[in-house]
Amino acid sequence: MLCSEWGQRVRDPLWHPFKIQRCGDKIKEVVDEEDAKLKNLSEEWGLRRRREERIPVLWNFEHGRKATLKEGIVAHMKHQINNLKRKRT
Fold first, then answer.
1. Which of 41, 40, 2, 34 is nearest to 18 (CA)?
2. Residue 35 and residue 38: Cα distance in Å, rounded?
3. Where in this chain does the entry annotate a coiled-coil region (predicted)?
4. Residue 48 pLDDT more than 60?
5. Nearest to 65 by CA among 73, 57, 77, 54
6. How far apart are CA 36 and CA 29, in angstroms?
7. pLDDT for residue 53 is more than 80
8. So what's the pLDDT on residue 89?
9. pTM (global) more than 0.70
């Protein structure tokens, strides 16, 4: 029931639980801690948001470590080439 209710809220284009913050010359979007719907969720279900920011990381599973930018570009190019080959056949 909770997932269904929040699924509807997340799909609502009018609800935007974020605010823009300036940090020097950088602008970033952060969760609005004062948003009424988020506060209600936290109070009702006792949920706490993690304070850390999630930064996507490209992973090299073959070597069990973070991938370098060069490895990521090469992997992307291989994927694109394979897609082109499939389209031709």
1. 34
2. 5
3. none
4. no
5. 57
6. 18
7. no
8. 65
9. no
| Nearest 10 degrees: Cα torsion 86, 75, 28, 13 | 20
| Position 72, amino acid | G
Q: Where are the beta strands (DSSP E) in 1-89?
A: 18-23, 26-31, 59-60, 65-66
Asked if residues 60 and 67 have their Cβ atoms less than 8 Å apart, the reply is yes
Measured torsion, CA atoms of residues 2, 5, 8, 9, in degrees rounded to the nearest 10: -90
Amino acid at the residue 10: V
Give me the amino acid identity at 17. Answer: P
In 3D, which of 48, 6, 8, 7 has the Cα closest to residue 31?
A: 48
**18-45 residue pLDDT tens:** 888 888 888 888 888 888 888 887 777 7
